Amino acid sequence: MSNDEILREFLLETHENLTLLDSDLVALEKNPTEKNTLAQVFRTLHSVKGTAGFMGLEKLQAVAHAAESLLNRLRAGELVFNPPIATALLQVVDAIREIMAAIEADGQEGQADYTALLAELDRLREVREVEPNSLPAINAQLVETVAVSIVSEPIAPSSVGQSPPSIATPPVEIPMPLSSPVEAIDARAPSVADANIRVDVTLLDKLMTLVGELVLARNQILQYSTAHEHAGFLGAVQRLNLLTTELQANVMKTRMQPIGNVLNKFPRVVRDLALACQKSVAFEMKGQETELDKTLIEAIRDPLTHMVRNSIDHGIEIPEVRRASGKSAQGLLRMVAFHEGGKVIIEIIDDGAGIDIARVREKAISNKLVTAEVAGRMSNLDIMRMIFQPGFSTAEQVTQFSGRGVGMDVVRTNIEKIGGTVEIESTPGQGTTIRTKIPLTLAIIPALIIVCGNERYAIPQVSLLELLRLDAEQAAVSIEYFHGAPVYRLRGALLPLVFLAEQLQLAAERDSLSDFNIIVLQADERPFGLVVDAVGDTEEIVVKPLQKQLKSTGVFAGAAIMGDGRVALVLDVLGLAQRSGVISTVKKISIGEAKSNVQPIEDTTEPLLLFSLRSGGQMAIPLAEVARLEEISTATIENLGSRQVVKYRNEILPLVDLSRQLDDGVHSPAMDSDTVSVVVYSDRDQSVGLIVGQILDIVHEPIVSRTHTNRRGVLFTAIVQDTITEFVDVAGLIRAVIGPGPAPAEEVRS
Amino acid sequence: MTKPKQFCTFYLGYQCFGLDVLHVQEIVRSQVLTHVPLAPPMVRGLINLRGQIVTAIDLRRRLCMPDPAEDIEPVNVVVQTDDGAVSLLVDEIGDVLEVDDQAFEPPPATLLGPASDVILGAYKLADQLLVVLDPERVVMVGDY
C-alpha cells in the first residue's frame, strides 16, 4: 500500500471515528460515569495519536496526545468528567477535523496553532476538583481562547483547506467562530469522506439478495411479455430489463474489491521467506487493480500464500545452484492477476527448477499414493497433478514453511470450494506456473437448467464441459456397458455415465426410445457424463443454502428460485460424483486410473447367465436382464412375416434366434430338436424370447481381461470360468431385429 | 400469576395440536412443492415463501401418523427456528386459543414412540385435548 493510500484510509477511518467521538463525548457529559464510553473515546484518540505519529503528523499527534493524557486521568478515576472537560475534548475533535481537512487539501497539517487548546487540556488535567460555580467562566474562556487562536491566524491561500468538518453534520455543534467560514468554503470538491461511506457487508448482501429476486421477477415478466403485443408494454419491459441488468452489475460492483488488497502483502512475505530460505528472489506483481468479490478475496488469501511459499521453498533454487545451471543468481517470482472469460485468473510464475516428474512419481509410490504399476501408466500431467494429493510432499526436508505434505491439496480444496480451479504447468529447469481460476462472484451464478423425473435442477456452469445429445438409435450403439457400468466413447476416451434419475432414486422410468441427453461434467478433474431427461436453458440463479433438514443428502449445493417462482434444487457436482463413485472419497484408490483408461468399476460382481449357441461357444448376458428360462416346443413357434413369435402366458412373445443373428453368414444349424431353450429377456415393458443353443450355467464371479470385439451383436469378450465368453448386446440385437422402426439388422455393430 | 398462553392450533385428522403462537410466523395455504430426492420421507419438499426457500415437513409423517386417506390440500404452518423458517404441513388450521396454565398436563408415561420427544404435553380443553408440540424439536429431521 502506498503512503497515499494509507493516508486516505486513515482519513476515512478517522472521519468516522470523529463522528463517534462527538456523540460519545456528549453521552459522557450526560452520564459521566459511563466507563465503556470513556474507554471507547480513549481508544479512538489513542489510535489517532498512534497513526499520526506513524505518519509524522506532529500537530495532530500533539493534540491527540494531550487529550489522551487527560482521558487517562479520567479513566483512572482521578478526575470526574465534567462540562469543561467535555468542551475541551470536543474542541480537540474539531481541531483534529481541521487538521485532517488541511491534510486532505494539500497533505500538510495546516497553519493553525493549537497551543491554547493544549494548554487548556493540560490545565484541566491538573485540576483536582472543579468548583461547580466556576464552570461558566472556564467555558467562556475556552471558547475565547480557541476563537482567538483561529482568528489571529493569518489565512494563507493554501490554508483555505482548513475547511469545515466535511462529513455529515456532527450531532453537536459547538458555537465557535469557526462556523462562519464553513459556508464560505463549501464549494470545494467533496472530501474523501464525502465520496466514500462504509457500509455493513450484511447490508450489501441483503441488497444483493434483493437484486437477485428482482432479476428473477424480471425474468418472469420477460417470459409473460412474449405473449403480449402491446408496444408500450413491451417497451417498458425492455427498459425494465436493461435497468435490472445494470442495477445487478452495479450492486455486484459494490462488493468488488481490487485484488491488490490481498496481493499487496506478498512483497513482504516473499522477502521474509527468501531471507529465511537463503534465496534471492525478485518479486513482480501485475494486475493488482483486478476486481473480484470481497468474500472471494478473503477466500484466496491463504491458498495464494501457500502457493507463493511453495514456489520459494521448493521452486526457486539457492543462488549457487542457479548459477551452476546458467541462470541469474536471483530468482524471479511473478504474480499476475487478470480477467478472462468472466473469471479472475491469478498466475504464480517462478523461474525455478520446475517439478521433477521422476521424483514426484517416486514420492507418490513411496508415500503409497499410487502403486508403481499405476504410476508407470500415468502421463506426466497426471503425475504433476499428484502434488495436489493429500499427504504429498517432495521436499527433502520438512522446513518451517513447507514440506509437511498438507499443502497443495488444501489449496486445491479451498479454491474448488469457491468454484475455482488450479492448474499447474512446469518445465524442468525453467520454472513452474500455477494458474488459479476463480469466479468473479458467488452470489449470482450462471447455471444450466435440466429436467429429470419432472423436476428441474440447476447445474452450475463452472463444472460444465459440454453437452451431448444422442438419439435413441445412436445411443443403442454407442452406449456400452463396462461390466454393467454404462460408458460412452467421447473422442476415443471412455466417459463413465451417471444416470441422474438413478442417483436421485427417482421412480421415473426411462423411455428406451427417447433421446439421450448427456451433460459432460467435471468433478475433481475427472469428467463424467450425467444422463438427464431434458436440457433447458442457461439461467442466472441466486443459490441459497439448504436448511439443515436437507444437508444430509449430499448431492445438492443449494436451491434457487426460478423465473416462474418455483424452487429448483442446485446439484452439487462433486457430491454427485462421489455418490456415483466417479470420484472416490478415498482418493488414493482412483488416482490415475481413469486417465490410464481403466474405468472405475463397481467392486460387486453381477451374476451372469452363460449359454451357448447351436454352433457352440460360450455367451453371457447379465442375469438381471433375464426374466425366465423356458423350454418351448418348436411346434408352437409361428412365423409372422419375417419374425418368429410364440404364444407365451397369453401374450405374443417375439423370438430372436441368437444363433441366426450372431453367426452371421456362417451356416448355423437349424432348430432340429423338438424343443428349444428360450431366455425370456425383459426390458421394461417389453419381453423378448431369445432362442439359444443350450443354457450352460449361472455364475457369480468377476470378469477378467475384457477385450473389445468386432463381432456384431457382441459387446465385448472376456474370460469367465476360464472360458472365452462373448457378452451379448441384447438390447441392440432386439432393437435391430424387431424394432423399433425399420432398423435393419445390419445396423447392429459392436 | 403466569400470563395465559396463546396457541396456534391445527388438526391432523381429528387430533388438535398446538404451537406457541410466538413461534409461529405465519399460516400459508398450500404451495407448489419442489420435491427433494434422497431427503427423509418426512421432508415433503421446498416452497418459495416470498423469495425465501423454506423446507416443508409433513407433520403427519413427522409424528408417525398415516398419510391422510383422501387427497387434502395441506396448510403450511410456518415456524421460526434458528435456521430460518420451516413449514409444517397440517391438514387443517384451527383458531388461536388462549389457555390456562392450570389445564396443562405432561404426556402420560404410556406415550411412547418417536412422536413422544416432540410432544410437550397437553391442555385439557372442554371438549378435547390440545397436544402441544415442541417447536424446536418438531422441525428436527434425520440425524443431524
Structure description:
The complex is a heterodimer of chains A (750) and B (144). Chain A contains 24 helices and 30 strands. In chain A, the strands form 6 sheets. Chain A has a 6-stranded mixed beta sheet with strand order 10-14-15-13-12-11. In chain A, helix 5 packs antiparallel against helix 6 and helix 12 (266-276) packs parallel to helix 13. Chain A is elongated, with a radius of gyration of 39 Å. In chain B, the strands form 2 sheets. A 6-stranded mixed beta sheet of chain B has the order 8-1-2-11-10-9. In chain B, strands 3-6-7-5-4 form a 5-stranded mixed beta sheet. Chain B has 144 residues and is mainly β. In chain B, a hairpin with a 2-residue loop joins strand 4 (43-49) and strand 5. The A-B interface holds A 209, 213, 453, 455, 504-506, 544, 546-556, 559-561, 565-569 and B 32, 34-40, 43, 45-48, 51, 53-55, 57, 83-84, 86, 139-144.
Key descriptive features of the protein:
heterodimer; A: 750 residues; alpha+beta; 6-stranded mixed beta sheet; 24 helices; 39% helix; B: 144 residues; 2 helices
Tally of DSSP helical segments of chain A: 24
Distance between the termini of chain B: 38 Å
Structural class of chain A: alpha+beta
Average pLDDT taken over every residue of chain A: 74
Mean pLDDT of chain B: 86
Q: Estimate percent helicity of chain B.
A: under 10%
Query: What is the approximate shape of chain A?
Result: elongated
Q: Taking Cα atoms only, what radius of gyration of chain A do you get, to the nearest Å?
A: 39 Å
Instruction: Report the helical percentage of chain A.
Output: 25-40%
Percent strand of chain B: over 45%
- Principal-axis shape of chain B equals globular
How many beta strands in the DSSP annotation of chain A? 30
Strand content of chain A: 25-35%
Strand order of the largest sheet of chain A: 10-14-15-13-12-11
